[in-house]
Each structure stands twice: as C-alpha cells, then as structure tokens.
Amino acid sequence: MLKARLIPCLDVKDGRIVKGVRFRGLRDSGDPVERAALYDRQGADELVLLDVAATTAGRTATLDTVRAVRRVLSIPLTVGGGITSSTQAGELLMAGADKVAVNTAAVTRPPLLSELANRFGRQCCVIAIDAAARAGGGWDVRTHSGQNTAGRDAVDWSRQAVALGAGEILLTSFDRDGTREGYDLDLIRAARETVNVPIIASGGAASAEHMRQALDAGADAVLAASIFHDDNTPVFTMKNRLAGLGIRVRL
C-alpha cells in the first residue's frame, strides 16, 4: 500500500504567494522560493505551484519563478497556470517542473491532454478540476481561476480526462477553498468511484483529521495552503498527527 502524500500548494500571482477564500480576496502570503525551501526542509512529499493569474493574462506560469523554486527543492514539483500547448508544457518541464497541471485549456480543448500524455507520459499530465456544488446535486467544473462555469459535470469530466491521458487529478472544491471547513468528502468519493488514477484532494483543510477524512474517502494525497503559509502547523507536525491517526505517511 502506497503511503499518503502531503502536498503544500503555492498559488502565485506577480511573483508572490497569494491566498483567499473561494479564489477571491487574495492576500499576500510570502515569497514562493522561501516557502518552497521551508516546506522541503519540513518534509513535504511534493509541491504544487499554480500561477493563478496566468490564464486570464493569456500567458503561462513564469519560467523564472519555476527555475528559482526548482533550485531549492529536492522533491517533485507540479506547475500549472495558462498552459495551452505541449510546447509550453515542455518549457515548464525544462525549467524544473516534474509534472504540469492543466484546467481551462483542457476543458476548452480536451485533446490537449492526449498531446501532453503522448509527448511526456501520463505521469507528467495532471488534470486540475475546480468543482462547485450544483443545486440539486453534483458538481460543475469551474475555469479561469473559478470565474466561469464550464457547463460540464466535474465527475464525468474526471472520467473523460483520464481516458484522454491524464495520469493524476488535482481535485479542488471551489466551495471549500480557503474556508478551513474540511474537504468535500462526497466529491472525493464520487471521483474515486469513477477513476483509477491518483487523486489529490484540495480545498478546505485545517487539521490532520480533515486530511484523514479525505484519504479515507479515496484521496491518495492531500493538498493544503493557508494552514502552512500562516505557520499554523509545520508540515512535519501535520505528518506526525496523521501517523497518530493511523495514516501511513513518509516520516
């Protein structure tokens, strides 16, 4: 049985980490290079860096930031933000990313996932799904950093994305993002019943118990941001707490 992964997330805008609630009210949360180095020292299993302004600005994640973060890391790095082609993905991988995450461009042009998987391998291709609960049940896909509703069912889209070549799902609850109310467990369970690739649960974490619940619901990894950026709990402390709850983690 694989050990659960704990993954800090750096949402970056204009070279700084930002964090808000439901993708709004963004506040400065520090320097991405300093934070990346800190989380590496604290025992993070991986790091995710998402340029939250890239898609709306019509560009990809800043290569200089990726290179600078890569220099201080000894763990895998996933980078997302504005990727619309395999050429752009290749540039980010050359700059130091181990995996690339796509959301809006894949929803707009699903064959992008196959292009990425065919060129770089499924293990490099992450589908980022931002899901908002729908009145009457189910979840809608959100794009453009949560600004638009795509008219797709999130769980059905997860199945399609994996069939096209996605090797991992970064599954974010739009409703729980930044709230510290815990992950959307129903969303995780629904996705787990649909796909057989690793799922990274995102949105709402505030405690080891929240993470345990997400892992028990079917996630393979848990992602968190503000609880680490605000120095509430170091990564190694959270891992020890997870171990105390019976979760297999890398200590």
| Element order: H for helix, E for strand | EEEHEHHEHEHHEEEHEHEHEHH
Shape label = globular
The CATH fourth-level homologous superfamily: Aldolase class I
CATH class descriptor name: Alpha Beta
Which architecture per CATH?
A: Alpha-Beta Barrel
CATH T-level fold name: TIM Barrel
Number of helices: 11
Instruction: Report mean pLDDT, rounded to a whole number.
Output: 93
Unreliable stretches (pLDDT < 50, length at least 5) are none
- Count of discrete domains: 1
Main sheet summary:
8 strands, parallel, barrel
What structural category do the secondary elements indicate?
alpha/beta
Task: Assess the beta-strand content as a share of residues.
Answer: 25-35%
Distance between the termini: 16 Å
Please give the number of β-strands: 12
Radius of gyration: 16 Å
Q: Biggest sheet: strands side by side, in what order?
A: 1-4-5-6-7-10-11-12
Helix content: 25-40%
What does this structure look like?
This protein is an alpha/beta fold and 251 residues long. It has a single domain (5-244), classed as Alpha-Beta Barrel (TIM Barrel). Helices cover 36% and strands 27% of the residues. It is built from eleven helices and twelve strands. An eight-stranded parallel beta barrel has the order 1-4-5-6-7-10-11-12, surrounded by six helices. A hairpin with a 2-residue loop joins β2 and β3 (24-28). α1 (32-41) packs parallel to α3 (63-71) and α9 packs across α11. The longest helix has 11 residues, at 154-164. The radius of gyration is 16 Å and the shape is globular. It starts with a strand and ends in a 7-residue tail after the last helix. The mean pLDDT is 93.
